[in-house]
């Protein structure tokens, strides 16, 4: 359809008669049609004016102008290339103005115009910038394209003045239109690429790439309206083009930037809006692109899209100019017609891309804003031209054959008005500063006094499996907080319907790298805020949302540090800002994020899945949106999808579903519908129905609303046969007054499937961890009868018995934990899970009975316990208390330790050994690092066998009898420690590895009599990874100063050293429980003092081999400061007390070395062997408490963790090779040490020294 419209626009341009004036060379004389008649400029011709205020070529009579050459007016203020002047009278020009050549207004100067239409009357004729293809005299194909370029502030490439009109079509095509600012312009350039303040009676079609550069520059602005062409009042003989219904069509790229040389430091000039519509458009707006069975190229409209100047702005107030104190009228966009688009009837169609993103960070963005100015000056995307009408009109339109031959076609369609998006509408804002609240991004904003009968977001099939994008997305990305709104409807907006087709999406996302905000900037008065809203309505007029695609809000998961305040809102549909309203949501696709209805709305409905008769598709959906849900295509309402296997329901997190305080609401989960939500409603205000094959999971109170107590307050609760009701249980539900569901009417469960999920951790009190007592949870409570016949209840008990998490005993006889054939334990003897009873207020209750397992190997009845030992057993009661403050982690822990004999199949029975092992692993992850790795690293750096300074001292002995010279030396070394594992005092197997590199720089001097003395600086950086029983990493940095001596007598030597060091320790401790991963981080300083001495005897054998037996004594004391972890959440962060470590080591060994002189270079190989014993090999002992339960300051909250005994005895050995002269030396060392528990330490050193 678009090609037909373009052809119609071009047709009149080539109907011109022979020119009266033909320019084939360059002339500096301006021409006008009133004196020159019809003007043709050949490809070799040019008019170069250079005159201020006078155009190079002027149409001011009933003649045409055809430019195949060049029109310029450069280097002057008010330069004009082409002027169409109707001041004397209206002009009738069937040939109009056509350019296939170059139009340039460049150089210095301001206030310029490329093409200027003015005079206050009407120009009857087409205006066409295009590309001409023809044959040369040699028969070759030649192409000549129009170009239009203007440089200068307060300038424009194409201007139609207010009060002046063009009756015919305007086609802007060719190679491109470029508008640039004056050189050095950094403030407001005041320029526009295309400025249509007058009226167009015909189509306006842009197929030219438009580039606008400069502060505040606008792209295409239309203020005077675009209306259908009419011959009423036209000159005799005037004929409207075949397709001239008054449409605004863009089929090319419109791109605006504030500057062509942006700075990466920010502060760049920003452009204005790419498209501004301040007047009515009879034939609607089309941004072209691929569509159903049409693979047209996608047009692009992009700019910075600041809030004050969105990429596309539709607003009647933009027509206010110096001569107009009020808008010229309402803005009415009529329906796009069948000759323009394959889906006629919409008023605004986007098939391409409309984007907003600034070059600079910390700036909010908006892609499209549609708003009125007041109740008198509204904006309406109407189903008819000229007035605001939201009713549907069935229309028959006769459309010419696109080929230009053959009979016309009658097209029947519904003119619905509204907005259709099959392409992409996106807004992106970026932050680079760590601020609590930063930027917003709005993809489609509908402001006050704007009426849009419907917004349709559709993914249309282009061919085969290729579809259009059908996306509306808003994203706030970066370091800081932010807000994202995909569709935002203001208080006085009127948008009754939003439709999302299959494969289409409306998405809002806020992603930040600041995962763990701290209290320094995330304060109570200014919390760190992430807010994503896919659809937000403040008007209360959004009556229907039909979704067969995806409506999603998603944010980065935040784990705030202690004392930090955060707000993290993910709202897929937010109707909660309007006080009243009635909305029906029909979902056969995916709604991911919270859904909030109007707080005082009545009669709200939510239908998910196939809610038609006998499981048929939802009958309320538009025919074009009808989707039948199946086991491979569930309709979903949840927070996020964790995983999904074809043919099975998804695994999700819960959303919030809030029906407000009104009455008469209904939630129906149809066949193959899935809802996982924390559901809120006024008491007795919500009827809940779950159809066969529907799944409803009632989550816990994620909003933490006062007096809500994790309770769904419903009226009637009807779970049909083979429908599934999943209930999320928490510690709060242990009270009979806080059931999971409080019904006010009838409850029917006969034939239903019941399932459980954990909303928090549920456990016995601290004193009963070895002999826990039964826990009774009230699932459903109702003043009326709970209908569930005995056979159904027995079936539900059997189902739940197989699915009971290993944290609790399964019911007796369930077969979930069969009796062990070896007799090691008995089968579970847990209570019957479900019973129906009457409580103390005479209400019927459905009760759940759970018996926690003991932490011992066996429960009191001989069935298997959790079998916790070591740190896991010691921590268990403390962990349970901490998890009560962290519902998410608590729920994950409660369910993560169950391992079935056949993975994923509860009916196969619980694998007891694997589940016990998993329980031990889960609870072991809550302890701090007790491996002792930091102590071993300190020993490695200071010990006589492995330390870098000791390596220098060994080399120094070779120069003991040489006269003292000042020697500069340097070493680079790498260390590796591998502790394969050893039982701690609590019986926990602990292992770790360290990899690190470092360097030492030193200087020494001395002589044979006084000995050698020197000083050194050593730096070491390593990562100590604890592998068992938990995953921790401690990044270690040591900064060490060492003073040392070396004295050598005739047969004796003595090495001494003293070191003082400062350390930085950055710790990471992780837990994996089910789908939840948490990482707690910490930073702490440390200090170390070390002393050492090595005394030996020098002997020579075999004429040159030196053997040096020696004995050494090394000691150190180490302190690491206490710390409080952040980022792990309330159930995981620890407060840890300071840690002290000591070591006193004695060693006995021998060095053997020889020396060979080759070409004046002394080569010295050396070997070492010995045994070392640590007299103070105490294990790590750390005190810690969970920060959320009081840390170290609360009595009874402190745990003591004891690590494994470090190596006492160690065998060490080493090899060295040095080469040098009396002025320099190079050497390599390798030292190896093996402890009595199998751990190894290895150090490789490269030494360079020079003598001064």
Q: What keyword list fits this structure?
A:
7% helix; 8 helices; 1252 residues; mainly beta; flat; 21-stranded parallel beta sheet; disordered N terminus; 36-stranded parallel beta sheet; single chain
Number of DSSP helices?
Answer: 8
User: By helix and strand content, what is the structural category?
Assistant: mainly beta
Overall outline: flat
Mean pLDDT: 90
Radius of gyration, in Å, reads 41 Å
**Uncertain residue segments:** 1-18
Q: Gist?
A:
This protein is 7% helix and 44% strand. By secondary structure, the protein is mainly beta.
Plain-language structure description:
The longest helix is centred in the middle third of the chain and has 14 residues, at 790-803. The chain has eight helices and 96 strands. A hairpin with a 3-residue loop joins strand 94 and strand 95 (1224-1235). Mean pLDDT is 90; it is low at 1-18. 7% of the residues lie in helices and 44% in strands. It is flat, with a radius of gyration of 41 Å. The chain has a 36-stranded parallel β-sheet that branches. It has a 21-stranded parallel β-sheet, covered by helices on one side. With 1252 residues, it is mainly β.
């Amino acid at each position: 359809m678009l090609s037909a419209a373009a052809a119609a626009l071009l047709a009149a341009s080539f109907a011109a008669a022979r020119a009266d004036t033909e320019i084939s060379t360059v002339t500096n004389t301006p021409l006008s049609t009133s004196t020159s008649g019809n003007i043709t400029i050949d490809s070799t011709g040019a008019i170069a004016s250079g005159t201020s205020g006078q155009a190079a070529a002027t149409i001011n009579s009933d003649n045409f102008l055809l430019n195949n050459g060049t029109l310029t007016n450069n280097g002057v203020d008010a330069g004009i290339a082409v002027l169409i002047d109707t001041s004397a009278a209206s002009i009738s020009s069937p040939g109009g103005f056509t350019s296939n050549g170059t139009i340039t207004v460049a150089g210095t100067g301001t206030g310029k115009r490329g093409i200027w239409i003015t005079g206050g009357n009407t120009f009857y004729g087409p205006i066409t910038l295009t590309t001409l293809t023809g044959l040369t005299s040699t028969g070759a194909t030649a192409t000549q394209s129009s170009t239009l370029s203007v440089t200068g502030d307060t300038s424009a490439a194409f201007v139609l003045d207010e009060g002046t009109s063009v009756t015919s079509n305007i086609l802007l095509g060719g190679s491109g239109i470029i508008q640039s600012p004056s050189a050095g312009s950094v403030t407001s350039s005041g320029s526009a690429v295309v400025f249509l303040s007058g009226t167009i009676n015909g189509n306006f079609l842009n197929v030219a790439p438009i580039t606008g550069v400069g502060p505040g520059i606008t792209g295409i602005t239309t203020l005077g309206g675009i209306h259908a062409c009419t011959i009423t009042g036209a000159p005799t003989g005037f004929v409207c083009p075949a397709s001239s219904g008054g449409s605004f069509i863009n089929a090319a790229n419109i791109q605006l930037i504030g500057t062509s040389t942006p700075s990466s430091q920010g502060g760049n000039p920003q452009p204005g809006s790419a498209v501004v519509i301040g007047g009515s458009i009879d034939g609607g707006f089309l941004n072209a692109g691929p569509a159903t069975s049409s693979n047209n190229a996608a047009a692009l409209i992009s700019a910075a899209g600041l809030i004050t100047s969105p990429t596309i702005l539709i607003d009647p107030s933009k027509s206010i100019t110096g001569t107009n104190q009020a808008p010229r009228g309402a803005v009415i966009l009529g329906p796009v017609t069948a000759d323009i688009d394959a889906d006629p009837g919409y008023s605004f169609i986007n098939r391409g891309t409309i984007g907003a993103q600034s070059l600079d960070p910390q700036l909010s963005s908006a892609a499209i804003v549609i708003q009125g100015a007041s109740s008198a000056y509204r904006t309406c995307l109407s189903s008819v031209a000229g007035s605001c009408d939201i009713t549907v009109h069935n229309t028959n339109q006769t459309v010419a054959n696109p080929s230009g031959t053959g009979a016309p076609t009658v097209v029947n369609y519904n003119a619905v008005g509204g907005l259709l998006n099959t392409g992409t509408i996106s807004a992106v804002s970026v932050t680079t500063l760590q601020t609590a609240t930063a930027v917003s991004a709005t993809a489609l904003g509908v402001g006050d006094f704007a009426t849009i009968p419907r917004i349709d977001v559709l993914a249309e099939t282009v061919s085969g499996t290729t579809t259009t994008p059908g996306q509306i997305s808003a994203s706030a990305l970066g370091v800081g907080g932010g807000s994202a709104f995909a569709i935002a409807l203001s208080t006085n907006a009127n948008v009754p319907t939003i439709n999302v087709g299959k494969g289409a999406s409306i998405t809002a996302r806020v992603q930040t790298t600041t995962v763990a905000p701290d209290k320094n900037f995330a304060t109570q008065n200014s919390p760190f805020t992430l807010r994503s809203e896919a659809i937000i309505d403040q008007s209360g007029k959004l009556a229907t949302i039909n979704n067969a695609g995806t409506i999603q809000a998603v944010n980065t998961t935040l784990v705030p540090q202690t004392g930090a305040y955060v707000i993290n809102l993910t709202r897929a549909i937010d109707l909660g800002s309007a006080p009243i309203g009635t909305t029906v949501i029909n979902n056969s696709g995916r709604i991911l994020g919270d859904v909030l209805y109007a707080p005082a709305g009545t009669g709200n409905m939510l239908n998910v899945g196939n809610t038609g008769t006998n499981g048929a598709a939802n009958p309320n959906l538009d025919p074009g949106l009808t989707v039948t849900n199946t086991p491979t295509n569930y309709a979903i309402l949840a927070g996020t999808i964790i995983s999904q296997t074809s043919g099975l329901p998804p695994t999700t997190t819960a959303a919030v579903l809030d029906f407000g305080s009104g009455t008469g609401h209904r939630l129906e989960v149809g066949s193959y519908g899935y809802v996982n939500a924390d559901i809120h409603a006024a008491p007795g205000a919500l009827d809940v129905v779950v159809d066969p094959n529907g799944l409803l999971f009632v989550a816990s109170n994620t909003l933490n609303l006062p007096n809500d107590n994790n309770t769904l307050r419903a009226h009637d609760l009807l779970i049909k046969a083979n429908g599934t009701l999943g209930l999320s249980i928490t510690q709060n539900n242990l009270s009979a007054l806080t059931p999971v569901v409080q019904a006010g009417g009838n409850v029917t469960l006969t034939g239903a499937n019941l399932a459980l999920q954990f909303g928090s951790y549920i456990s016995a009190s601290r004193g009963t961890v070895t002999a826990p007592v039964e826990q009774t949870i009230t699932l459903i409570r109702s003043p009326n009868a709970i209908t569930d016949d005995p056979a159904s209840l027995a079936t539900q008990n059997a189902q739940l018995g197989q699915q009971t998490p290993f944290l609790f005993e399964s019911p007796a006889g369930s077969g979930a934990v069969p009796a062990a054939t070896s007799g090691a334990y008995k089968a579970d003897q847990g209570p019957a899970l479900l019973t129906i009873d009457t409580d103390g207020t005479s209400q019927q209750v459905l009760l759940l009975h759970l018996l926690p397992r003991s932490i011992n190997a066996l429960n009191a009845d001989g069935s298997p316990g959790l079998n916790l030992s070591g740190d896991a057993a010691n921590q268990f009661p403390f962990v349970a208390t901490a998890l009560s403050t962290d519902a998410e982690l608590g729920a994950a822990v409660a369910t993560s330790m169950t391992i079935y004999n056949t993975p994923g199949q509860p009916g196969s029975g619980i694998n007891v050994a694997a589940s016990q092992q998993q329980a031990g692993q889960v609870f072991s992850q809550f302890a701090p690092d007790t491996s002792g790795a930091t102590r071993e690293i300190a020993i490695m750096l200071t010990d006589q066998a492995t330390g870098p300074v000791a390596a220098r001292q060994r080399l120094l002995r070779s120069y003991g009898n040489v006269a003292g010279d000042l020697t500069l030396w340097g070493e680079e070394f790498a260390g590796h420690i591998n502790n394969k594992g050893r039982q701690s005092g609590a019986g926990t197997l602990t292992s770790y590895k360290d990899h690190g590199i470092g360097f030492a720089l030193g200087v020494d001097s001395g002589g044979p009599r006084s000995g050698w003395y020197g000083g050194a600086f050593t730096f070491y950086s390593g990562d100590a990874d604890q592998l068992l029983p938990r995953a921790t990493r401690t990044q270690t940095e040591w900064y060490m100063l060492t003073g040392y001596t070396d004295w050598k007598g005739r047969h004796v030597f003595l090495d001494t050293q003293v070191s003082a060091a400062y350390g930085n320790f950055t710790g990471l401790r992780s837990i994996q429980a089910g789908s939840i991963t948490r990482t707690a981080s910490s930073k702490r300083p440390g200090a170390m003092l070390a002393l050492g001495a090595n005394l030996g005897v020098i002997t020579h054998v075999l004429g040159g081999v030196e053997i040096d037996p020696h004995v050494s004594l090394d000691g150190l004391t180490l302190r690491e400061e206490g710390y409080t972890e952040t980022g792990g959440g309330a159930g995981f962060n620890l407060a840890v007390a300071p840690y002290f470590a000591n070591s006193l080591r004695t060693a006995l060994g021998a060095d053997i070395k020889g020396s060979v002189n080759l070409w004046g270079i002394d080569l010295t190989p050396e070997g070492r062997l010995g045994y070392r014993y640590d007299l103070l090999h105490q294990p790590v002992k750390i005190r810690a408490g969970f920060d959320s339960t009081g840390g170290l300051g609360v009595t009874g909250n402190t745990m003591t963790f004891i690590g494994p005994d470090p190596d006492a005895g160690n065998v060490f050995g080493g090899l060295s090779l040095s080469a040098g002269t009396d002025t320099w030396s190079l050497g390599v060392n390798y030292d190896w040490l093996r402890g009595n528990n199998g751990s190894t330490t290895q150090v490789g050193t490269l030494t360079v020294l020079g003598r001064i």
